[in-house]
Known about the structure:
single chain
Amino acid sequence: MGNLAENVIQKWADYVNQSNFQKLLGLYAPDSTMIPTFFKKILLNSSEIQEYFFMLSEWETTVEIFEESFCTKRIDMGFLVNGEYTFKMNRGEPSQSIPARFSFLLNLSREDPILLHHSSAIP
């Protein structure tokens, strides 16, 4: 089951890179919480999360996940997946690469498995 959890994270990255908002937002439960990398505010609903990803697409953002960094744990609520990724902001010159770490809390019995997503830049 751990691989299924990691597959959700890879789908998430694919949808970010494609700016596929419908599929990306479909991964988030309606009552999910997101602590984003590039906003000070904690996002508490689908419309706030959508606004955040729209902003990232305006910056022509892509993400590269480092699968070797995955640490997946089965917990009572589902799966906790931690790891690292790098955001690349392609708008403007020069482009910027921002390494970050993440935590996803997933319930794989749901169609929208992401319950919590926390991301922060690596200092």
